Amino acid sequence: MTRQGSPPPGPGDRPGDPFDSAATARATVDRRGVLTSWSEGAERLLGYTESQTVGRGAAMLLADGVPEGGLPPGVRPDGGEPRWNGTLTLRHRDGRPLDVRVLAHRQDPGGRAPGGWLLVSALGGGEAVAGDAELGRWAFDQCPCAVAVYDTALRLRRVNEAMRGVIGLPEDEIRGLRLSEIGGKPQSGELEEQMRTVLTTGTAIDARTYMRTGGEAEEHSWSARLAPLRDEEGRVRGVCLAAHDVTEEVLARQRLQLLNSASVRIGTTLDVNRTAWELADVCVPRLADFVSVDLLEHLETGAEPPPGPVTGPVPLRRVAHRSRTEEGAPDAWVKVGGVQVYPDFSPLAAGLASGRPVLNVTTDPAMRRWADQSPERAAYARKHGFHWVMTVPVLARGTTLGVVVFSRLVGAAPFAPDDVLLAEEITARAAVCIDNARRFTREQNTSLALQRSLLPHHLPRANAVEIASRYLPASPHPGVGGDWFDVIPLSGARVALVVGDVVGHGIQASATMGRLRTAVRTLADVDLPPDELLTHLDDLVIRLSSEAGAEETSGEVGATCLYAVYDPISRRCTLAGAGHPPPVVVTPDGLTYPVELPVGPPLGIGGLPFESVDFELPEGTVLALYTDGLMDGRDDTDEGRRLLAEALARPAASLDAVCGAVLGALLPGPGAPDDVALLLARTKVLDTAHVATWDVPADPAEVARTRGYVTEQLRDWRLEDATFATELITSELVTNAIRHATPPIQLRLIHDLSLICEVSDSSTTVPHLRRARAFDEGGRGLLLVAQLTQRWGSRHNPTGKTIWAEQILDQENGEG
C-alpha cells in the first residue's frame, strides 16, 4: 500500500541497497487487535517507533477511530476473508492524516483458528515510473511462454522470442500472415477458427493441439490460451495467443496409463507364451514400433534358469513379437518358435550379461560389428527401417529368463530416460508373471507325469466284463487333479470296478490319488466286501489328513470313491459309494437308470458307516462309472444326467465309441473345467459249461474220488495238460478242509482265461504258508500249491471261507 499525499521516503534514501526491506511498511496484528510487530518501513511511514506501537491496540493508528459499523468485514479479528485490500486513513505521529493503500493477509498458523493479520504497504514504487515501458517490452519479448499477437483480421502483428523459436522463422518474414498460413497444417486452421470465435464473442478459449513445430522431428503437445485484447473502451482490438509446451506432461500421463494397462493386461493366464504375447501387445505402438520377447532356450524343457546374469553366446527362443507396421510382424527376422544364438557383443547378450537395459542406435560400433557378422540380418533391419534399439533383460526372483527388445523406426524419437524406466518396469512385472507361469507349467507337467504313472496304462483282460475308459485332464490347466479309475481282477473270475476323486489339484492330489489307488488294490486282494473296503479306505484318508497337518500343509485330505464287484457266474453286482455320484445302468434293451445307492459320506469324515447294495445284471448290461468332473460347469445337474443317459443309450459300434459319445455330449468344448474319469463295463456271463461244482463229504476217503471228478472234468474241457497240477492242488485243498475245517465242504472248478480251483467250508480259520522242518509229516501242502499256481488266497463269505488257487492256461487251450 502506498501513502497518498506527501511522498514517502524511497529506496533512493539508501543508495547502493536495491533490495531495501525498509521500502515496505509491515505490521502484524493478533486476533485481539493488538500490534505484535512493527517494521522500520512502518516507522518511516507513520513516525511511530516499535516501542510505541507493539503491545498496543491497532485502533490507535486510525485517524478517525474505529468506524461506527466496526472494522471492515475482511479485517475483523474474529473472522472474514483470508485477504483484504483497500485504503485506510491513518494518523501520523505528528497528527497528520494519511490515506494509505493496505494489503492485509490473514495468518492461520498450522491450520488452526485465525491468528491475526499481516499488514503491508509499499513506501515507494507504487506509481508508474520511468522504465516501466521498457520492462513491459522486455517481459513480452523474453517471456518463456510463447506469445503471439494477432489483429482483428487475424494477421500476425507481434511474436516474442519463444514463439519465434516455436515457429522457426524470423518475425519480419511472418508478420501480416494468418496462423493457417504460417503453420500450413490442419491444426493451424483449427486454432485460427477458435481465434475467430474469440474475436466474435470476446471470450477467452483454452485449446489443446498436437503438431510438429519449427525444425522439430517429433510431434509436441501444446496447451494454448486464446484471449481477446481490448482498448480503453473495452472494444476487442486483437487476439493474444499464449502457448505452453506440455509434451512432457502428456508423455508422463501416457506412460502412467501404459503402466496401468500393463498391470491389467499382462499375466491374465498361467501360460508363458500367452504372457509374452500380452507384453508385446501392450507395448506396441505406445512404447515401441516393434517388440520381441526371447526366452532362454532350456526353459522350454522345464530346466531351472541360472541365477544372476547370463554370459557368453546365448541361445534364445523367440516366444512372441509384435509390429506396428503390418499384421503378423513380417519385419521379424526370427520367427516365433525359432532359436538363435547371439554372440556376447550383441545387444541381447550384452543386456543379459549386464542385467541392465542397453540402448543402441544402428550406427553404434557394437551394432555394426553385429551387422558385419550377419549381413542378411543387417540388410533386413535396414529394409524395414529399424534405428533405435533398447534391450531389457527379463529378470525375476534373482534369475534370468530372457530378454525383451524394444525397437523404434527411422524418423521416430529416440528412447528417453523415462522410456527406459517404463520399459524396465513393464518388463519386471511381466517377468514375475512369466516366472509364475513357468513354475506352474513345471509343476503341472510333473503332476501330469505322476498322474499318468499312477493310472493304469492298459486295462486287464477279463471274461467277466468288456471295458472301455476315458481320462481327460482339466483344461485350460487349472491344475492336475486326483481323479482315477481301476479294474481289478478278483478270485473266482470276478472283477472289481473303481472310480475315485481326490479333493484338490496339483502334485499333492496326484500323490494322494496314487496312495489311495494302491490301498484299494491291496484291500481288494484281501477280497473285502465293498462296504468294508471303503471303511478301511476311510481310515487311511483320515491318517493321510493327519500327516498332512503335521507337515504344515493344507491339513485337509478328502476323497470320494465308488467300488463295485461283479460276479459273472452269479451275475450279481455288489457296490458301495463314499460321497461319489451313483453309476448309471444301461440294460440290453436300451433302458437307462441310476443305481439307487445309499448316500455314503466322503472319505476322510470318519465315524459314519458305509452301506452296499446287491443286484443282478443281465448279460450285456453296461455299467457306467464316472467322476463329477463330467457334470462340472453345468448349473442344471438333472440336464447333465439326461444327456449322459441319452449318450449311453444311443447305439454305437463299440463300447469305446460310447465313451466318445458321452464326452461329446457333456463336454462339447475343447476341454473340461475339472478332471474327468469315465469307466464303462459291459457284463458277460460265465455259463454252467465253464463251471463245475461238487459237494465233498468230510471223509478222507473222498479225496481220491474228488480227484477222479476233477480229471474227468478237465478231459471234458480239453485241459489234459493241466491234470497233474490240478489233481495235486485239489488233493491238498480238499484234505486241509476235511482235516481242519467244518462241513459242508464244496469244490468248484472255473474255466475262464485261467483255471481256478476253489474249496469252501464253514470255518473262518484261514491257513497260511509255513516252512516245514526236515522230520515234519505235514506243512508242505500250501507251499506246493503256491509253487504250482500263479496265485492263491482266501476270501470270507457269509457262511465261512473259500480257499482258491489259480493256474494260467496256455493260449492255445484257454478256451478249452
Question: Can you characterise this structure?
Answer:
By secondary structure, this protein is an alpha+beta fold. It is 31% helix and 28% strand. The chain contains 20 helices and 32 strands. Strands 1, 2, 3, 4, 5 and 6 form a 6-stranded antiparallel beta sheet that branches. Strands 14-13-12-17-16-15 form a 6-stranded antiparallel beta sheet, with helices on both faces. Helix 11 crosses helix 12 (375-384), helix 13 packs parallel to helix 14 (507-525) and helix 14 (507-525) packs antiparallel against helix 15 (530-550). The longest helix is centred in the middle third of the chain and has 38 residues, at 417-454. The radius of gyration is 49 Å and the shape is elongated. It starts with a strand and ends in an 8-residue tail after the last strand.
Major sheet size, sense and barrel closure: 6 strands, antiparallel
Binned, the helix content reads 25-40%
| Number of strand elements | 32
Radius of gyration: 49 Å
Mean pLDDT: 83
Class from helix and strand fractions: alpha+beta
Strand content: 25-35%
Q: Spans of 5+ residues with little confidence (pLDDT < 50)?
A: 1-16, 550-555, 771-779, 812-816
Give the end-to-end Cα distance, rounded to a whole number of Å: 128 Å
Treating each run of at least 4 consecutive H or I residues as one helix, how many helices? 20
> What spatial form do the alpha-carbon principal axes imply?
elongated
Search tags:
alpha+beta, disordered N terminus, 816 residues, six-stranded antiparallel sheet, 32 strands, disordered C terminus
